[in-house]
Amino acid sequence: MIYIGIGSNVGNKTNNIEKAKHYLIMNNVNIIKSSSYYETLSWPDPKKPKFYNIILQSDTKFSPKKLLNIFKSIEKKLGRKIKPKNSPRECDIDLIAYKNKVFKGDISIPHSRMHLRNFVLIPLYELNKNWFHPALNISIKNLIFSLSIKDIRSIKKV
Question: Which domains does the chain have, with CATH numbers?
Answer without folding.
Answer: 2-157 (3.30.70.560)
